[in-house]
Design brief:
heterodimer; A: 222 residues; alpha/beta; four-stranded antiparallel beta sheet; 7 helices; 10 strands; 36% helix; globular; B: 403 residues; alpha+beta; six-stranded mixed β-barrel; two-stranded antiparallel sheet; 15 helices; 11 strands
Amino acid sequence: MSIIIRLENVKKYYNQSRAVNGVTLSMNEGEEYLIRGASGSGKSTLLYLLGGLDRPTEGEVIVNQKNLASLNDEELALYRNRYVGFVFQFHFLLPSMNCLDNLLLPARLAGFASAETDEVKERVLKLAENLQVTHCLAKYPYELSGGEQQRINIIRALSLKPKLLLCDEPTGNLDSENSRKVIQLLRTLSREFQATLVVVTHDPIIAESFSNQFLMKDGKLA
Amino acid sequence: MKSARFKLFLTLFLDSPGTIKFALGVLAGMAFSIAVILSTMGMMDGFDRALKTGLKKSTGEIVMNSRTGNFFKLTPDLEDKFKSQHIDHYAPLVQSESFLIFNDESRGVLVRGVDDSYSEVVQLPLKFNDDEVGIGSEIARLHNIKIGDEIVLTFARGNSGVKSMPSLERFKVARLITHGVYQKDSRIVYLKLSVLQKILALGNHINMVSMNLPGNLSGHETKNDLEKIENALPGLRSVFGNNFYFKPYWREFSSLIEAVKVEKIMISLILQMVVVISIFNILAFIIFINEKKSKELFLFKALGLSKKAMADLWMQLVLLMWVLSCLLSMVFVQIFKFLLLHLSLFELPSEIYYMPRIELYLTAKDYAFVFALALVWIMLITYYLLRKLKQKSLLEGLRQEFA
Protein backbone atom coordinates (compact mmCIF):
# COMPACT_ATOMS: atom_id res chain seq x y z
CA MET A 1 0.00 0.00 0.00
CA SER A 2 1.36 3.44 -0.92
CA ILE A 3 1.17 6.43 1.40
CA ILE A 4 -1.54 8.83 0.27
CA ILE A 5 -1.55 11.27 3.21
CA ARG A 6 1.49 12.58 5.05
CA LEU A 7 1.38 15.26 7.73
CA GLU A 8 4.67 16.84 8.82
CA ASN A 9 4.64 18.76 12.08
CA VAL A 10 1.31 20.37 11.23
CA LYS A 11 0.17 23.27 13.41
CA LYS A 12 -2.98 25.32 13.24
CA TYR A 13 -3.49 28.33 15.49
CA TYR A 14 -6.61 30.44 15.85
CA ASN A 15 -5.53 33.68 17.54
CA GLN A 16 -3.99 32.42 20.79
CA SER A 17 -5.59 28.98 20.66
CA ARG A 18 -3.50 26.05 19.33
CA ALA A 19 -6.10 23.76 17.72
CA VAL A 20 -3.48 21.49 16.15
CA ASN A 21 -0.01 21.65 17.62
CA GLY A 22 2.58 19.66 15.73
CA VAL A 23 0.96 16.57 14.26
CA THR A 24 2.99 14.17 12.15
CA LEU A 25 1.33 11.10 10.66
CA SER A 26 0.82 9.16 7.46
CA MET A 27 -2.06 7.16 5.96
CA ASN A 28 -2.09 4.50 3.27
CA GLU A 29 -4.20 4.57 0.13
CA GLY A 30 -7.52 2.74 0.35
CA GLU A 31 -7.36 2.07 4.09
CA GLU A 32 -9.71 3.10 6.89
CA TYR A 33 -8.62 5.40 9.68
CA LEU A 34 -10.20 6.76 12.77
CA ILE A 35 -9.17 9.88 14.60
CA ARG A 36 -10.65 10.08 18.05
CA GLY A 37 -10.39 12.41 20.95
CA ALA A 38 -12.39 14.53 23.33
CA SER A 39 -14.28 17.58 22.20
CA GLY A 40 -11.84 20.43 21.49
CA SER A 41 -8.87 18.10 21.02
CA GLY A 42 -8.32 19.37 17.45
CA LYS A 43 -9.44 16.26 15.56
CA SER A 44 -12.02 18.06 13.38
CA THR A 45 -9.53 20.84 12.59
CA LEU A 46 -7.04 18.19 11.52
CA LEU A 47 -9.68 16.63 9.26
CA TYR A 48 -10.50 19.99 7.68
CA LEU A 49 -6.82 20.59 7.04
CA LEU A 50 -6.73 17.24 5.24
CA GLY A 51 -9.78 18.29 3.24
CA GLY A 52 -8.30 21.61 2.15
CA LEU A 53 -10.98 23.59 3.95
CA ASP A 54 -8.27 25.45 5.81
CA ARG A 55 -4.51 25.90 5.58
CA PRO A 56 -2.05 24.99 8.32
CA THR A 57 -0.25 27.74 10.18
CA GLU A 58 2.90 25.67 9.98
CA GLY A 59 3.95 22.28 8.63
CA GLU A 60 3.04 20.33 5.52
CA VAL A 61 -0.12 18.50 4.54
CA ILE A 62 0.84 16.27 1.65
CA VAL A 63 -1.94 14.39 -0.10
CA ASN A 64 -1.10 12.21 -3.07
CA GLN A 65 2.35 13.79 -3.17
CA LYS A 66 0.98 17.32 -3.33
CA ASN A 67 1.57 19.83 -0.59
CA LEU A 68 -1.79 21.47 -0.03
CA ALA A 69 -0.11 24.61 1.27
CA SER A 70 1.48 25.13 -2.14
CA LEU A 71 -1.85 25.00 -3.98
CA ASN A 72 -3.50 28.29 -4.87
CA ASP A 73 -7.15 28.95 -4.07
CA GLU A 74 -8.36 27.64 -7.40
CA GLU A 75 -6.32 24.43 -7.19
CA LEU A 76 -7.45 23.89 -3.61
CA ALA A 77 -11.10 24.35 -4.65
CA LEU A 78 -10.59 21.81 -7.44
CA TYR A 79 -8.98 19.44 -4.92
CA ARG A 80 -12.01 19.73 -2.62
CA ASN A 81 -14.38 19.18 -5.49
CA ARG A 82 -12.76 16.24 -7.26
CA TYR A 83 -10.52 14.53 -4.76
CA VAL A 84 -12.34 14.77 -1.46
CA GLY A 85 -15.78 13.71 -0.30
CA PHE A 86 -16.98 15.28 2.96
CA VAL A 87 -19.51 13.79 5.33
CA PHE A 88 -20.31 16.43 7.90
CA GLN A 89 -21.96 15.98 11.26
CA PHE A 90 -24.61 18.59 10.48
CA HIS A 91 -25.36 17.25 6.98
CA PHE A 92 -24.96 20.67 5.35
CA LEU A 93 -27.84 20.02 3.00
CA LEU A 94 -29.27 23.16 1.43
CA PRO A 95 -32.82 23.73 2.66
CA SER A 96 -33.87 25.56 -0.52
CA MET A 97 -33.13 22.57 -2.78
CA ASN A 98 -34.64 19.14 -2.94
CA CYS A 99 -32.41 16.16 -2.17
CA LEU A 100 -31.63 15.29 -5.79
CA ASP A 101 -30.46 18.85 -6.46
CA ASN A 102 -28.40 18.70 -3.27
CA LEU A 103 -26.81 15.48 -4.54
CA LEU A 104 -25.96 17.03 -7.90
CA LEU A 105 -24.51 20.18 -6.35
CA PRO A 106 -20.82 19.10 -6.54
CA ALA A 107 -21.24 18.18 -10.23
CA ARG A 108 -22.91 21.49 -11.02
CA LEU A 109 -20.31 23.47 -9.12
CA ALA A 110 -17.64 21.58 -11.04
CA GLY A 111 -19.24 22.96 -14.21
CA PHE A 112 -19.69 19.51 -15.73
CA ALA A 113 -21.17 19.15 -19.19
CA SER A 114 -24.60 17.54 -19.35
CA ALA A 115 -23.19 14.10 -20.28
CA GLU A 116 -20.94 14.10 -17.22
CA THR A 117 -23.75 15.36 -15.02
CA ASP A 118 -25.96 12.56 -16.34
CA GLU A 119 -23.27 10.07 -15.37
CA VAL A 120 -23.15 11.53 -11.85
CA LYS A 121 -26.93 11.45 -11.70
CA GLU A 122 -26.94 7.80 -12.66
CA ARG A 123 -24.42 7.09 -9.91
CA VAL A 124 -26.32 8.94 -7.19
CA LEU A 125 -29.60 7.28 -8.21
CA LYS A 126 -27.95 3.88 -7.90
CA LEU A 127 -26.52 4.79 -4.51
CA ALA A 128 -29.88 6.15 -3.39
CA GLU A 129 -31.42 2.83 -4.34
CA ASN A 130 -28.74 0.88 -2.44
CA LEU A 131 -29.13 3.11 0.59
CA GLN A 132 -32.94 2.97 0.34
CA VAL A 133 -33.50 6.72 0.05
CA THR A 134 -34.94 6.88 -3.48
CA HIS A 135 -38.23 8.07 -2.01
CA CYS A 136 -36.39 11.03 -0.47
CA LEU A 137 -34.95 12.45 -3.68
CA ALA A 138 -37.86 14.74 -4.52
CA LYS A 139 -38.21 15.84 -0.92
CA TYR A 140 -36.56 18.77 0.85
CA PRO A 141 -34.02 18.06 3.62
CA TYR A 142 -36.38 19.23 6.38
CA GLU A 143 -38.86 16.53 5.34
CA LEU A 144 -36.36 13.74 6.10
CA SER A 145 -35.37 11.94 9.30
CA GLY A 146 -31.85 12.32 10.72
CA GLY A 147 -30.79 8.94 9.32
CA GLU A 148 -32.13 9.75 5.86
CA GLN A 149 -30.41 13.13 5.87
CA GLN A 150 -27.12 11.45 6.76
CA ARG A 151 -27.48 8.91 3.97
CA ILE A 152 -28.16 11.72 1.47
CA ASN A 153 -25.09 13.47 2.86
CA ILE A 154 -23.00 10.33 2.27
CA ILE A 155 -24.27 9.95 -1.29
CA ARG A 156 -23.36 13.57 -2.05
CA ALA A 157 -19.86 12.97 -0.65
CA LEU A 158 -19.42 10.02 -3.03
CA SER A 159 -21.09 11.60 -6.05
CA LEU A 160 -17.82 12.49 -7.81
CA LYS A 161 -16.00 9.27 -6.83
CA PRO A 162 -13.49 10.88 -4.42
CA LYS A 163 -10.17 9.30 -3.48
CA LEU A 164 -10.52 10.57 0.06
CA LEU A 165 -13.67 10.21 2.13
CA LEU A 166 -13.48 12.47 5.19
CA CYS A 167 -16.18 12.12 7.84
CA ASP A 168 -16.58 14.49 10.76
CA GLU A 169 -18.64 12.91 13.55
CA PRO A 170 -20.87 11.18 10.98
CA THR A 171 -22.92 9.52 13.70
CA GLY A 172 -23.17 12.53 15.98
CA ASN A 173 -26.93 12.82 15.67
CA LEU A 174 -27.79 9.12 15.48
CA ASP A 175 -28.62 6.40 18.02
CA SER A 176 -26.17 3.56 18.51
CA GLU A 177 -27.87 1.14 16.11
CA ASN A 178 -28.06 3.70 13.32
CA SER A 179 -24.48 4.78 14.15
CA ARG A 180 -23.21 1.23 13.54
CA LYS A 181 -25.18 1.02 10.30
CA VAL A 182 -23.78 4.32 9.04
CA ILE A 183 -20.21 3.37 9.88
CA GLN A 184 -20.65 0.00 8.19
CA LEU A 185 -22.08 1.77 5.19
CA LEU A 186 -19.17 4.18 5.00
CA ARG A 187 -16.67 1.32 5.16
CA THR A 188 -18.49 -0.65 2.48
CA LEU A 189 -18.81 2.32 0.17
CA SER A 190 -15.22 3.50 0.62
CA ARG A 191 -14.04 0.01 -0.33
CA GLU A 192 -16.38 -0.02 -3.30
CA PHE A 193 -15.07 3.38 -4.44
CA GLN A 194 -11.48 2.48 -3.49
CA ALA A 195 -11.33 5.60 -1.36
CA THR A 196 -9.27 6.18 1.77
CA LEU A 197 -11.67 6.62 4.67
CA VAL A 198 -10.89 8.95 7.55
CA VAL A 199 -13.48 9.18 10.31
CA VAL A 200 -13.30 11.63 13.19
CA THR A 201 -15.35 10.74 16.25
CA HIS A 202 -15.44 10.82 20.02
CA ASP A 203 -17.77 7.80 20.11
CA PRO A 204 -15.92 4.85 21.74
CA ILE A 205 -18.37 2.27 20.33
CA ILE A 206 -17.45 3.21 16.77
CA ALA A 207 -13.78 3.31 17.66
CA GLU A 208 -13.80 -0.42 18.49
CA SER A 209 -14.31 -1.40 14.86
CA PHE A 210 -11.29 0.45 13.41
CA SER A 211 -7.85 -1.08 13.48
CA ASN A 212 -6.05 2.11 12.35
CA GLN A 213 -6.59 4.75 14.99
CA PHE A 214 -5.08 8.05 16.05
CA LEU A 215 -5.88 9.56 19.41
CA MET A 216 -5.71 13.32 19.73
CA LYS A 217 -5.28 15.28 22.92
CA ASP A 218 -4.71 19.02 23.24
CA GLY A 219 -3.91 19.37 19.55
CA LYS A 220 -1.31 16.60 19.52
CA LEU A 221 -1.29 12.87 18.81
CA ALA A 222 -1.32 11.03 22.07
CA MET B 1 -20.57 24.64 -18.47
CA LYS B 2 -20.15 27.84 -16.54
CA SER B 3 -23.67 28.87 -17.57
CA ALA B 4 -25.11 25.95 -15.57
CA ARG B 5 -23.16 27.14 -12.56
CA PHE B 6 -24.50 30.67 -13.02
CA LYS B 7 -28.02 29.36 -13.44
CA LEU B 8 -27.64 27.51 -10.15
CA PHE B 9 -26.34 30.68 -8.51
CA LEU B 10 -29.22 32.71 -9.91
CA THR B 11 -32.05 30.34 -9.02
CA LEU B 12 -30.68 29.98 -5.52
CA PHE B 13 -30.76 33.74 -4.97
CA LEU B 14 -34.10 34.39 -6.54
CA ASP B 15 -35.97 31.73 -4.61
CA SER B 16 -38.06 34.03 -2.45
CA PRO B 17 -40.55 36.76 -3.41
CA GLY B 18 -38.77 39.20 -1.09
CA THR B 19 -35.47 38.78 -2.87
CA ILE B 20 -37.13 39.02 -6.28
CA LYS B 21 -38.87 42.25 -5.25
CA PHE B 22 -35.59 43.65 -3.96
CA ALA B 23 -33.86 42.71 -7.22
CA LEU B 24 -36.63 44.32 -9.29
CA GLY B 25 -36.44 47.49 -7.19
CA VAL B 26 -32.70 47.67 -7.70
CA LEU B 27 -33.14 47.13 -11.44
CA ALA B 28 -35.82 49.79 -11.71
CA GLY B 29 -33.71 52.27 -9.73
CA MET B 30 -30.68 51.69 -11.88
CA ALA B 31 -32.72 51.82 -15.09
CA PHE B 32 -34.40 55.06 -14.02
CA SER B 33 -31.03 56.66 -13.25
CA ILE B 34 -29.69 55.71 -16.65
CA ALA B 35 -32.91 56.94 -18.25
CA VAL B 36 -32.54 60.31 -16.51
CA ILE B 37 -29.12 60.80 -18.03
CA LEU B 38 -30.26 59.60 -21.45
CA SER B 39 -33.32 61.85 -21.37
CA THR B 40 -31.27 64.87 -20.38
CA MET B 41 -28.82 64.23 -23.17
CA GLY B 42 -31.69 63.52 -25.53
CA MET B 43 -33.37 66.81 -24.62
CA MET B 44 -30.17 68.74 -25.19
CA ASP B 45 -29.58 67.03 -28.52
CA GLY B 46 -33.26 67.36 -29.36
CA PHE B 47 -33.15 71.10 -28.70
CA ASP B 48 -29.95 71.45 -30.69
CA ARG B 49 -31.35 69.45 -33.59
CA ALA B 50 -34.75 71.13 -33.63
CA LEU B 51 -33.15 74.56 -33.52
CA LYS B 52 -30.73 73.75 -36.31
CA THR B 53 -33.45 72.15 -38.42
CA GLY B 54 -35.66 75.20 -37.87
CA LEU B 55 -32.86 77.54 -38.79
CA LYS B 56 -32.01 75.49 -41.84
CA LYS B 57 -35.62 75.64 -42.93
CA SER B 58 -35.56 79.40 -42.61
CA THR B 59 -32.36 80.11 -44.52
CA GLY B 60 -30.97 77.04 -46.28
CA GLU B 61 -27.51 75.80 -45.37
CA ILE B 62 -25.53 78.89 -46.30
CA VAL B 63 -26.54 82.49 -46.90
CA MET B 64 -24.54 84.82 -49.13
CA ASN B 65 -24.73 88.59 -48.64
CA SER B 66 -22.97 91.51 -50.22
CA ARG B 67 -20.16 92.63 -47.94
CA THR B 68 -21.01 96.29 -48.55
CA GLY B 69 -24.70 95.77 -47.83
CA ASN B 70 -25.62 96.83 -51.37
CA PHE B 71 -28.06 95.06 -53.63
CA PHE B 72 -26.55 93.03 -56.43
CA LYS B 73 -27.54 91.06 -59.51
CA LEU B 74 -27.33 87.32 -59.85
CA THR B 75 -25.18 87.49 -62.96
CA PRO B 76 -24.17 84.53 -65.18
CA ASP B 77 -20.66 84.96 -63.76
CA LEU B 78 -21.95 84.39 -60.20
CA GLU B 79 -24.01 81.44 -61.40
CA ASP B 80 -20.90 79.90 -62.97
CA LYS B 81 -19.14 80.26 -59.65
CA PHE B 82 -21.93 78.34 -57.90
CA LYS B 83 -21.62 75.61 -60.50
CA SER B 84 -17.85 75.45 -60.01
CA GLN B 85 -18.54 74.64 -56.35
CA HIS B 86 -21.09 71.95 -57.38
CA ILE B 87 -23.90 73.99 -55.81
CA ASP B 88 -27.03 73.24 -57.81
CA HIS B 89 -29.56 74.40 -55.24
CA TYR B 90 -29.40 78.14 -54.66
CA ALA B 91 -32.04 80.80 -54.53
CA PRO B 92 -31.89 84.57 -54.93
CA LEU B 93 -33.97 86.58 -52.50
CA VAL B 94 -34.67 90.03 -51.22
CA GLN B 95 -35.03 90.57 -47.52
CA SER B 96 -36.39 93.77 -46.03
CA GLU B 97 -37.93 95.10 -42.85
CA SER B 98 -41.63 95.94 -42.84
CA PHE B 99 -44.71 96.35 -40.70
CA LEU B 100 -47.62 93.97 -40.91
CA ILE B 101 -51.00 95.53 -40.17
CA PHE B 102 -54.08 93.51 -39.33
CA ASN B 103 -57.21 94.50 -37.43
CA ASP B 104 -55.70 97.76 -36.22
CA GLU B 105 -52.65 95.98 -34.87
CA SER B 106 -49.20 96.16 -36.35
CA ARG B 107 -46.07 94.14 -36.00
CA GLY B 108 -42.51 94.51 -37.20
CA VAL B 109 -41.73 91.71 -39.63
CA LEU B 110 -38.99 90.52 -41.93
CA VAL B 111 -40.28 90.31 -45.47
CA ARG B 112 -38.64 87.90 -47.86
CA GLY B 113 -39.20 87.96 -51.54
CA VAL B 114 -38.59 84.46 -52.84
CA ASP B 115 -38.95 82.57 -56.09
CA ASP B 116 -39.65 78.88 -56.72
CA SER B 117 -36.02 77.88 -56.27
CA TYR B 118 -36.15 78.92 -52.61
CA SER B 119 -38.73 76.21 -51.87
CA GLU B 120 -36.24 73.61 -53.03
CA VAL B 121 -33.49 75.05 -50.86
CA VAL B 122 -35.46 75.23 -47.61
CA GLN B 123 -37.91 72.40 -48.30
CA LEU B 124 -40.93 74.55 -47.51
CA PRO B 125 -43.96 75.22 -49.73
CA LEU B 126 -43.33 78.85 -50.70
CA LYS B 127 -44.93 79.37 -54.11
CA PHE B 128 -47.26 82.39 -54.21
CA ASN B 129 -49.34 84.40 -56.63
CA ASP B 130 -48.65 88.12 -56.91
CA ASP B 131 -51.26 89.07 -54.30
CA GLU B 132 -50.42 86.32 -51.85
CA VAL B 133 -48.13 86.00 -48.85
CA GLY B 134 -47.14 83.27 -46.47
CA ILE B 135 -46.78 84.31 -42.85
CA GLY B 136 -45.06 82.65 -39.92
CA SER B 137 -47.41 80.50 -37.87
CA GLU B 138 -46.68 82.43 -34.65
CA ILE B 139 -47.61 85.72 -36.33
CA ALA B 140 -50.91 84.13 -37.29
CA ARG B 141 -51.45 82.81 -33.75
CA LEU B 142 -50.51 86.09 -32.03
CA HIS B 143 -52.77 88.22 -34.26
CA ASN B 144 -55.42 85.61 -34.90
CA ILE B 145 -54.83 85.69 -38.65
CA LYS B 146 -56.27 82.88 -40.74
CA ILE B 147 -55.66 81.68 -44.26
CA GLY B 148 -57.64 83.86 -46.61
CA ASP B 149 -57.46 86.94 -44.37
CA GLU B 150 -56.16 90.15 -45.86
CA ILE B 151 -53.19 91.88 -44.30
CA VAL B 152 -51.31 95.05 -45.13
CA LEU B 153 -47.56 95.37 -45.37
CA THR B 154 -45.83 98.73 -45.21
CA PHE B 155 -42.69 99.41 -47.25
CA ALA B 156 -40.37 102.31 -47.79
CA ARG B 157 -41.37 104.05 -50.99
CA GLY B 158 -38.78 103.06 -53.52
CA ASN B 159 -35.19 102.63 -52.62
CA SER B 160 -34.08 106.25 -52.76
CA GLY B 161 -34.77 107.42 -49.22
CA VAL B 162 -36.96 107.20 -46.18
CA LYS B 163 -38.21 110.77 -46.08
CA SER B 164 -41.44 110.17 -47.95
CA MET B 165 -44.53 108.32 -46.71
CA PRO B 166 -44.40 104.54 -46.82
CA SER B 167 -46.36 102.55 -49.36
CA LEU B 168 -49.08 100.23 -48.11
CA GLU B 169 -49.63 96.97 -49.94
CA ARG B 170 -52.55 94.62 -49.40
CA PHE B 171 -52.07 90.85 -49.57
CA LYS B 172 -54.10 87.74 -48.98
CA VAL B 173 -52.65 85.17 -46.55
CA ALA B 174 -52.21 82.03 -48.65
CA ARG B 175 -50.19 79.89 -46.27
CA LEU B 176 -49.03 79.66 -42.67
CA ILE B 177 -45.36 78.74 -42.49
CA THR B 178 -43.82 76.81 -39.63
CA HIS B 179 -40.02 76.69 -39.40
CA GLY B 180 -40.04 75.24 -35.90
CA VAL B 181 -38.19 78.19 -34.37
CA TYR B 182 -40.31 80.74 -32.54
CA GLN B 183 -38.16 83.70 -33.53
CA LYS B 184 -38.59 82.87 -37.20
CA ASP B 185 -42.24 81.86 -37.03
CA SER B 186 -43.09 85.11 -35.27
CA ARG B 187 -41.21 87.35 -37.69
CA ILE B 188 -40.97 86.17 -41.29
CA VAL B 189 -43.41 86.94 -44.09
CA TYR B 190 -42.84 85.47 -47.55
CA LEU B 191 -44.02 86.85 -50.86
CA LYS B 192 -43.09 86.52 -54.48
CA LEU B 193 -39.59 87.86 -55.29
CA SER B 194 -40.68 89.79 -58.40
CA VAL B 195 -43.49 91.48 -56.45
CA LEU B 196 -41.15 92.67 -53.69
CA GLN B 197 -38.57 93.81 -56.23
CA LYS B 198 -41.28 95.85 -57.94
CA ILE B 199 -42.53 97.39 -54.66
CA LEU B 200 -39.01 98.34 -53.65
CA ALA B 201 -38.13 99.40 -57.20
CA LEU B 202 -35.12 97.10 -57.23
CA GLY B 203 -35.33 95.91 -60.81
CA ASN B 204 -33.80 92.45 -60.73
CA HIS B 205 -31.46 93.19 -57.88
CA ILE B 206 -31.32 91.00 -54.79
CA ASN B 207 -29.55 91.25 -51.45
CA MET B 208 -29.15 87.58 -50.49
CA VAL B 209 -28.56 84.16 -52.00
CA SER B 210 -29.55 81.10 -50.04
CA MET B 211 -27.93 77.79 -50.96
CA ASN B 212 -27.54 74.13 -50.09
CA LEU B 213 -24.41 72.11 -50.51
CA PRO B 214 -24.66 68.89 -52.56
CA GLY B 215 -25.88 65.91 -50.56
CA ASN B 216 -28.35 66.16 -47.72
CA LEU B 217 -31.58 67.65 -49.00
CA SER B 218 -33.92 66.30 -46.37
CA GLY B 219 -34.21 69.67 -44.72
CA HIS B 220 -33.22 68.12 -41.39
CA GLU B 221 -30.06 68.89 -39.55
CA THR B 222 -27.67 66.00 -39.61
CA LYS B 223 -24.72 65.28 -37.35
CA ASN B 224 -22.13 65.93 -40.07
CA ASP B 225 -23.74 69.14 -41.35
CA LEU B 226 -21.53 71.43 -39.36
CA GLU B 227 -18.32 69.84 -40.50
CA LYS B 228 -19.46 69.67 -44.12
CA ILE B 229 -20.51 73.30 -44.23
CA GLU B 230 -17.48 74.58 -42.31
CA ASN B 231 -15.27 72.76 -44.79
CA ALA B 232 -17.10 74.28 -47.79
CA LEU B 233 -16.90 77.90 -46.61
CA PRO B 234 -13.21 78.59 -47.40
CA GLY B 235 -13.75 77.32 -50.97
CA LEU B 236 -16.73 79.63 -51.45
CA ARG B 237 -14.89 82.60 -50.01
CA SER B 238 -11.92 82.10 -52.29
CA VAL B 239 -14.09 81.71 -55.41
CA PHE B 240 -16.43 84.64 -54.73
CA GLY B 241 -13.74 86.96 -53.39
CA ASN B 242 -14.10 89.74 -50.88
CA ASN B 243 -17.33 91.22 -52.22
CA PHE B 244 -19.47 88.67 -50.44
CA TYR B 245 -19.59 86.98 -47.10
CA PHE B 246 -21.03 83.58 -46.34
CA LYS B 247 -22.92 82.67 -43.21
CA PRO B 248 -23.80 79.10 -42.16
CA TYR B 249 -27.37 78.69 -40.98
CA TRP B 250 -26.53 78.25 -37.31
CA ARG B 251 -24.34 81.37 -37.04
CA GLU B 252 -27.20 83.46 -35.68
CA PHE B 253 -27.58 81.10 -32.68
CA SER B 254 -24.02 79.80 -32.51
CA SER B 255 -23.40 80.94 -28.94
CA LEU B 256 -26.64 79.29 -27.77
CA ILE B 257 -25.81 76.07 -29.60
CA GLU B 258 -22.31 76.07 -28.12
CA ALA B 259 -23.76 76.70 -24.65
CA VAL B 260 -26.14 73.75 -25.04
CA LYS B 261 -23.25 71.55 -26.11
CA VAL B 262 -21.15 72.48 -23.07
CA GLU B 263 -24.16 72.15 -20.78
CA LYS B 264 -24.86 68.69 -22.14
CA ILE B 265 -21.38 67.50 -21.21
CA MET B 266 -21.51 69.12 -17.78
CA ILE B 267 -24.97 67.80 -16.94
CA SER B 268 -24.05 64.31 -18.15
CA LEU B 269 -21.06 64.32 -15.82
CA ILE B 270 -23.01 65.68 -12.87
CA LEU B 271 -25.80 63.18 -13.41
CA GLN B 272 -23.27 60.37 -13.09
CA MET B 273 -23.87 60.89 -9.39
CA VAL B 274 -27.40 59.58 -9.89
CA VAL B 275 -25.98 56.40 -11.41
CA VAL B 276 -23.44 56.04 -8.63
CA ILE B 277 -26.18 56.38 -6.02
CA SER B 278 -28.28 53.74 -7.73
CA ILE B 279 -25.25 51.47 -7.88
CA PHE B 280 -25.22 51.60 -4.10
CA ASN B 281 -28.58 49.83 -4.29
CA ILE B 282 -26.87 47.05 -6.21
CA LEU B 283 -24.22 46.91 -3.54
CA ALA B 284 -26.90 46.75 -0.86
CA PHE B 285 -28.42 43.85 -2.80
CA ILE B 286 -25.10 42.02 -2.92
CA ILE B 287 -24.56 42.52 0.82
CA PHE B 288 -28.13 41.39 1.53
CA ILE B 289 -27.72 38.25 -0.57
CA ASN B 290 -24.31 37.59 0.90
CA GLU B 291 -25.80 37.62 4.38
CA LYS B 292 -29.06 35.87 3.57
CA LYS B 293 -27.45 33.09 1.57
CA SER B 294 -24.22 32.75 3.50
CA LYS B 295 -25.06 29.11 4.30
CA GLU B 296 -25.29 28.30 0.59
CA LEU B 297 -22.21 30.32 -0.26
CA PHE B 298 -20.05 28.59 2.35
CA LEU B 299 -21.28 25.20 1.20
CA PHE B 300 -20.51 26.11 -2.42
CA LYS B 301 -16.96 26.94 -1.38
CA ALA B 302 -16.61 23.77 0.69
CA LEU B 303 -17.78 21.67 -2.24
CA GLY B 304 -15.26 23.16 -4.61
CA LEU B 305 -16.07 26.68 -5.73
CA SER B 306 -12.98 28.87 -5.65
CA LYS B 307 -12.96 32.49 -4.49
CA LYS B 308 -12.26 33.58 -8.04
CA ALA B 309 -15.15 31.50 -9.41
CA MET B 310 -17.39 32.99 -6.73
CA ALA B 311 -16.26 36.53 -7.62
CA ASP B 312 -16.92 35.72 -11.29
CA LEU B 313 -20.45 34.62 -10.44
CA TRP B 314 -21.05 37.89 -8.56
CA MET B 315 -19.71 39.84 -11.50
CA GLN B 316 -21.95 37.91 -13.89
CA LEU B 317 -24.91 38.67 -11.66
CA VAL B 318 -24.05 42.37 -11.63
CA LEU B 319 -23.51 42.33 -15.41
CA LEU B 320 -26.90 40.73 -15.88
CA MET B 321 -28.43 43.45 -13.73
CA TRP B 322 -26.64 46.07 -15.81
CA VAL B 323 -27.93 44.59 -19.08
CA LEU B 324 -31.50 44.42 -17.75
CA SER B 325 -31.22 47.97 -16.38
CA CYS B 326 -30.03 49.24 -19.74
CA LEU B 327 -32.94 47.56 -21.51
CA LEU B 328 -35.42 48.88 -18.98
CA SER B 329 -33.93 52.37 -19.21
CA MET B 330 -34.68 52.32 -22.96
CA VAL B 331 -38.32 51.66 -22.12
CA PHE B 332 -38.29 54.54 -19.61
CA VAL B 333 -36.78 56.84 -22.24
CA GLN B 334 -39.56 55.95 -24.69
CA ILE B 335 -42.18 56.67 -22.02
CA PHE B 336 -40.56 60.01 -21.24
CA LYS B 337 -40.33 60.81 -24.95
CA PHE B 338 -44.05 60.18 -25.32
CA LEU B 339 -44.90 62.32 -22.28
CA LEU B 340 -42.64 65.10 -23.49
CA LEU B 341 -44.49 65.26 -26.76
CA HIS B 342 -48.01 64.83 -25.48
CA LEU B 343 -48.30 66.13 -21.92
CA SER B 344 -49.18 69.82 -21.60
CA LEU B 345 -47.02 69.93 -18.48
CA PHE B 346 -43.95 69.64 -20.68
CA GLU B 347 -44.91 72.39 -23.10
CA LEU B 348 -42.27 75.10 -23.15
CA PRO B 349 -42.77 78.87 -23.27
CA SER B 350 -41.74 79.42 -26.91
CA GLU B 351 -40.68 82.99 -26.39
CA ILE B 352 -37.90 81.75 -24.13
CA TYR B 353 -36.97 78.41 -25.63
CA TYR B 354 -37.52 79.26 -29.34
CA MET B 355 -39.68 76.16 -29.77
CA PRO B 356 -42.81 74.87 -28.05
CA ARG B 357 -41.74 71.27 -27.52
CA ILE B 358 -38.51 69.40 -27.47
CA GLU B 359 -38.26 65.94 -28.90
CA LEU B 360 -35.71 63.56 -27.42
CA TYR B 361 -33.02 62.88 -29.95
CA LEU B 362 -30.62 60.09 -29.05
CA THR B 363 -28.16 58.32 -31.29
CA ALA B 364 -26.65 54.86 -30.75
CA LYS B 365 -23.49 56.69 -29.71
CA ASP B 366 -25.34 58.43 -26.86
CA TYR B 367 -26.77 55.12 -25.62
CA ALA B 368 -23.36 53.47 -25.87
CA PHE B 369 -21.72 56.33 -23.96
CA VAL B 370 -24.18 56.29 -21.06
CA PHE B 371 -24.38 52.48 -20.84
CA ALA B 372 -20.61 52.12 -20.97
CA LEU B 373 -20.11 54.73 -18.26
CA ALA B 374 -22.67 53.00 -16.03
CA LEU B 375 -20.87 49.70 -16.63
CA VAL B 376 -17.53 51.20 -15.65
CA TRP B 377 -19.02 52.52 -12.40
CA ILE B 378 -20.72 49.21 -11.62
CA MET B 379 -17.62 47.14 -12.27
CA LEU B 380 -15.37 49.44 -10.29
CA ILE B 381 -17.62 49.70 -7.25
CA THR B 382 -18.60 46.02 -7.26
CA TYR B 383 -14.98 44.94 -7.58
CA TYR B 384 -14.08 47.14 -4.63
CA LEU B 385 -16.97 45.77 -2.57
CA LEU B 386 -16.15 42.14 -3.31
CA ARG B 387 -12.61 42.74 -2.16
CA LYS B 388 -13.76 44.49 0.97
CA LEU B 389 -16.55 42.11 1.97
CA LYS B 390 -15.57 40.55 5.26
CA GLN B 391 -13.81 37.32 4.43
CA LYS B 392 -14.76 34.81 7.07
CA SER B 393 -12.66 31.66 6.89
CA LEU B 394 -14.38 28.73 5.22
CA LEU B 395 -14.21 26.57 8.29
CA GLU B 396 -15.48 29.31 10.58
CA GLY B 397 -18.30 30.04 8.14
CA LEU B 398 -19.37 26.40 7.85
CA ARG B 399 -19.39 25.85 11.58
CA GLN B 400 -21.24 29.10 12.24
CA GLU B 401 -23.85 28.71 9.50
CA PHE B 402 -24.69 25.03 9.90
CA ALA B 403 -24.33 24.63 13.66
